[in-house]
Structures are given as C-alpha cells and as structure tokens.
C-alpha cells in the first residue's frame, strides 16, 4: 500500500513514527510524501494542549475527505484518550494499524493486533530503527510514561506509568548507530530523568557512562530533564565535557512559588535557583533552555510579574513558551476556570520580549569562543555548511573548497554572523 504518515506533537512521537515507518517498509508498504499519492494515511496524534487536539482533528478531517484515501489510521496520545471523537469525523477513521492496511480493524480489535503506536502499548518500548544510522544526529527513545500528575498535564493519562528500555539493548543499538556514522544521539522520553533499567539498576548517568565506555559515539544530548532529576553524577558528566553536551533543557513552568504549588510541581524557585547555580558551576557556558507556562488559572498579575522577574534572573538561552490550556480529567481543569485569552496573550508577549533578549545575550556570551560543530548539511551553491554545536546553536560556516560533508566535525571560533535559526 502507498501510505502517508503524518506526525504531530513531541519528539517521542517523531521517534515512534520513524520506527513505525521502518517496520512498515519491511512489510512492503511504500511511504509517500503527499497524501494525494497515498491510498491510506496514518496520523500520530498529540493531545498535550487544546491547540494540538484541534490540529489533529483538522488533519484527520482533511485526509478523510480525499477521494483517493480509503482509510485514515489514528495512533498516539490523542487516539488512546479519546478515539471516539476522531471516529465521529469520518467512517474512514480507524484506531491502530493492522498489518494488512487494506483491511481496517474495528476499535475493539485494532489495538490487539497489527501495529499500534508505542503510546498505545503498555509493553515494549520503541527502539531507534536501523535506518536511522544514515542520519547524523539521531533521537533514541530510552523511556516512556510519567506518574508526576502535574495538575495541568494530561500526559500521564495518555502515556501511563514510567518504564525504561534495557540498558544493554540501548548500548547495542547506539553502538551500531555510531559505527554507521552517527555523531550525536539525543536521549528522548516522556520523563527522561526517570530512566532506570530495573533489571540492572542502571540510571540515566549510568547509561551515559556506558555509552561513553562501550560505543564509539562522539556526544550525547538530553532532550529534556526535570529539575529534581539532575543528579551530582550528571553534573560530573557535564563538567567532564567529553560526552554529554553542555546543553540542558530544564522545565521551569513558572517562576512563582504559589503557582508552582498549584501546578503540583515538586520544587520551589529556591530549589530551581540552586540547581541552575550548580549547573553553571559545573560548566559556565552550558546552554540552559526551559519550558514556561503563562496564564495558569491561579496566576494573579503579581504572580506573573514575580515569574517574569525570576525568568530575567535565570537568563535562559531559550524559552519554549506556551499558554495554559485546560485538559480533560486534569486536576486544574476540574478545579479552576481559565483566565481570559487576552490576559494570556499579553503575558505571552511580555515573556517573548525577555526570552528574545536573553537568547541574544547568551549567543553574544559565546562570541570568540571555540565551538564544535557536527556538520548536518551542505549548500554547494553558497559554499557553506551548517551544523549543530554542543550548546544547541545551529551555525552556518563558509566552506569555499567544499571539503566538509555531513557527519564531519569542525571546530570554529564563533562569530555572530554564523548563528542561524533552528
């Protein structure tokens, strides 16, 4: 079958879609770039916000309207939590993916056979596909699930309890990737800091240590890690400066203690402040990026101003900003009424202004320093190449002779003109 695969949402969804595409190709199905070329479609859904839900419904409705489309298979977090809403969009919509794509299954049977997204599974975790070795920087899913139950977050309901892949399997796969030319692996999961191989007791820092010892991998990046999960052992790996990239994405969510408590986050601003100080003591040039929410229902104007002041103090290299969105079944949605959209819009704009200035300040702090690039792409017409630094900056450098190619390493003295958008 000719299949169009659409992935919405987080990096974990993208990793799972990569794995799915390889397994489908092994069965003889052809993945196509345009839905108009496809006989069937698969939509890997996200439900982390109301906006994500709406995008999924819009995409499914669009695909189902195509005359050439016989079926639209829905997987992922949204499908697990509320498949009936998707099914109402069209008779073509089905849950899960049967091995024979020409034979749709009913919702009751589809999850029991054929392919389902790892987010619909309670057993084995998806490991990176063998073909991912052709890429230079490869995300590797090491963990799934979360049981923190922050009051605003629907993810624990969609993904289930924390569970981790076996360290031996991960080391074996990363070793194969490194031998095939992969330079950087991004350890990815729903709650990466909760990684632990229950058979051996190896935790996240232990896994990174094993990757450095038992593979030819050049560097490891963490996709994200919660504040209280950054251990002394991880800080030692950061200070070592060899394998672990000096970039940590550490979600803050709010810089106000009352809001953090209402969110059911397990730390205070003082806890977070001490952690950031520890990180910068381990490596002063580490890029610290974060997630920040504005407009949580209990957030007063004073709370927001307090949070904004804390953000200014932290001087993040980048902020992923999002507005509070009530999610069904979560404690916040049941207990509180959302703030007016205009309040969220105004607060978002204020944070964006600070975020832009702080990102520029961080980039300027690296000017004149030697940075290491993993080359990702070349532009022969402009005689340039583009790569990613350990600090999570995408940089474009001249290559007039054309000697650099994807996968090469290059050390450069950073100039502002080199920094390009991600």
CATH architecture label name of the domain at 125-245: 2-Layer Sandwich
Shape estimate? globular
| Straight-line N-to-C gap | 34 Å
Mean pLDDT: 91
What helical percentage do the residues reach? Answer: 25-40%
Show unreliable segments: 106-124
Under CATH, the topology of the domain at 125-245 can be stated as Transcription Regulator spoIIAA
User: What is the top-level CATH class of the domain at 125-245?
Assistant: Alpha Beta
Structural class: alpha/beta
By DSSP (H or I, 4+ residues per run), the number of helices equals 13
- Structural Rg: 22 Å
Largest β sheet strand count, sense and barrel closure:
5 strands, parallel
- Spatially, the strands of the biggest sheet line up as 2-1-3-4-5
Beta-strand portion reads 15-25%
Could you spell the SSE succession in H and E letters?
EHEEHEHEHEHEHEHEHEHHEHEHHEEEEE
Could you explain how this protein is built, in words?
With 422 residues, the protein is of the alpha/beta class. Among the domains are: 119 residues, Methylthiotransferase, N-terminal domain (Rossmann fold, 3-Layer(aba) Sandwich), CATH 3.40.50; 121 residues, 2-Layer Sandwich (Transcription Regulator spoIIAA); 51 residues. Helix content is 35%, strand content 21%. The protein has 13 helices and 17 strands. The strands form 4 sheets. Strands 2-1-3-4-5 form a 5-stranded parallel beta sheet, sandwiched between helices. It has a 5-stranded antiparallel beta sheet with strand order 16-13-14-15-17, with no helix packed on it. A 4-stranded mixed beta sheet has the order 7-6-8-9, sandwiched between helices. Strand 11, helix 11 and strand 12 form a beta-alpha-beta unit. Helix 6 runs parallel beside helix 7, helix 8 packs parallel to helix 10 and helix 11 runs parallel beside helix 13. The two termini are 34 Å apart.
């Amino acid at each position: 079958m000719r299949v169009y695969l659409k992935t919405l949402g987080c990096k974990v969804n993208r990793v799972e879609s990569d794995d799915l595409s390889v397994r489908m190709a092994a069965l003889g199905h052809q993945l196509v770039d345009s839905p108009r070329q496809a006989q069937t479609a698969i939509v890997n859904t996200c439900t982390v916000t109301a906006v994500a839900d709406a995008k999924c419904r819009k995409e499914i409705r669009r695909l189902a309207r195509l005359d050439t489309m016989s079926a639209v298979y829905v997987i992922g977090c949204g499908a697990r939590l509320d498949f009936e809403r998707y099914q109402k969009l069209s008779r073509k919509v089905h849950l899960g993916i049967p091995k024979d794509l020409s034979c749709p299954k009913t919702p009751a049977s589809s999850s029991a056979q054929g392919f389902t997204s790892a987010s619909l599974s309670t057993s084995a975790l998806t490991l990176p596909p063998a073909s991912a070795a052709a890429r230079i920087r490869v995300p590797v899913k090491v963990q799934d699930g979360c049981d923190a139950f922050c009051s605003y977050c629907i993810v624990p309901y969609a993904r289930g309890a924390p569970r981790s892949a076996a360290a031996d399997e991960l080391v074996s796969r990363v070793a194969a990737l490194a031998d095939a030319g992969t330079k950087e692996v991004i350890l990815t999961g729903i709650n990466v800091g909760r990684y632990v191989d229950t058979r051996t007791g190896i935790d996240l820092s232990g896994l990174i240590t094993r990757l450095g010892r038992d593979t030819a991998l050049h560097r490891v990046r963490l996709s994200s890690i919660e504040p209280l999960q950054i251990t002394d052992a991880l800080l030692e790996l950061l200070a070592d400066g060899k394998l672990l990239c000096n970039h940590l994405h550490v979600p803050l969510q709010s810089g106000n203690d009352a809001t953090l408590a209402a969110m059911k986050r397990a730390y205070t601003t003082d806890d977070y402040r001490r952690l950031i100080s520890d990180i910068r003591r381990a490596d002063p040039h580490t890029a610290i990026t974060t997630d920040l929410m504005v407009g949580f229902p209990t957030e007063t104007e004073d709370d927001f101003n307090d949070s904004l002041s804390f953000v200014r103090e932290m001087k993040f290299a980048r902020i992923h900003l999002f507005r509070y969105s009530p999610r069904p079944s979560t404690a916040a949605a049941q207990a509180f009424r959302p703030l007016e959209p205009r309040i969220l819009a105004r607060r978002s704009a204020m944070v964006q202004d600070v975020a832009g200035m702080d990102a520029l300040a961080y980039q300027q702090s690296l000017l004149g320093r030697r940075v290491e690039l993993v080359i990702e792409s070349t532009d022969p017409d402009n005689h340039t190449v583009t790569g990613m630094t350990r600090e999570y900056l995408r940089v474009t450098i001249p290559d007039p002779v054309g000697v650099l190619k994807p996968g090469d390493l290059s050390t450069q003295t950073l100039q502002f003109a080199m920094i390009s958008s991600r």
